[in-house]
Amino acid sequence: MRRSGFTLIELMLAGALSSLVIGSLYAIALTGFRTWCRTQDQIHVTRRMVQCLERMGGQMRNAVFIPEIPWETKPQRLTFVTVEEGTVPVQVSYERLSRGEFIETSKILPHGENRNHQWLTGVTSFHISYGFFSEDGKNVRWKPEWDDDKHLPCLVQVTLSVGSPSRTPLFLEKVVRISQGEIHAAG
């Protein structure tokens, strides 16, 4: 007597193969989702880095020299005076804190309140270099500190690095020409 239908072994084999196919598809979808999330995170961080450096660059381009408040560079910190809305002097500081936060602090001069803005987290480095033209005026040489308390720098190079264990480090660099900066040969 011949029966139509599937045997128990055939059903078990079909179930095992179906589980294998579904498991593989799930693993592929999960990997794709994780990759998409990481990419979205990198896009967000990159946008914030660009916004921060654009704001910093605009403020540096409007920097003014005030003898009482010189341009100051310390490890992981930059302080200078800029002009907002054409006439209002503002002291601005950008700083990488020990926990990796990158903040901007601004203070309307002479007696305004400090305003803080946190731009980024996970900042691994904040580096500033200053450019000088060579004596022939054709080449730029860079140095790590600004030690002239009578002039503004001419060129400033800012590099930000953001990273964490879960993402690839991102580096962004911006060179800013300061219109009121002194153009002179490095000594």
Throw out a few tags for this protein:
187 residues, alpha+beta, 5-stranded antiparallel beta sheet, 4-stranded antiparallel beta sheet, 1 helix, 29% helix, 37% strand, disordered C terminus
Major sheet strand order: 1-2-3-4-5
Tally of strands: 9
Give the integer mean of the pLDDT values. Answer: 86
Relative strand content: 35-45%
Oligomer: single chain
Protein model, in words:
It is a single chain. It is built from 1 helix and 9 strands, in the order H-E-E-E-E-E-E-E-E-E. With 187 residues, the protein is α+β, with helices and mostly antiparallel strands. It has one domain. The strands form 2 sheets. Strands 1-2-3-4-5 form a 5-stranded antiparallel beta sheet. A 4-stranded antiparallel beta sheet has the order 7-6-8-9, with helices on one face. The chain is elongated. The C terminus is likely disordered.
Quick rundown:
This protein is α+β, with helices and mostly antiparallel strands and 187 residues long. The chain has one helix at residues 8-61; strands at residues 72-74, 77-84, 88-96, 102-108, 114-120, 123-133, 140-143, 155-164, 167-177.
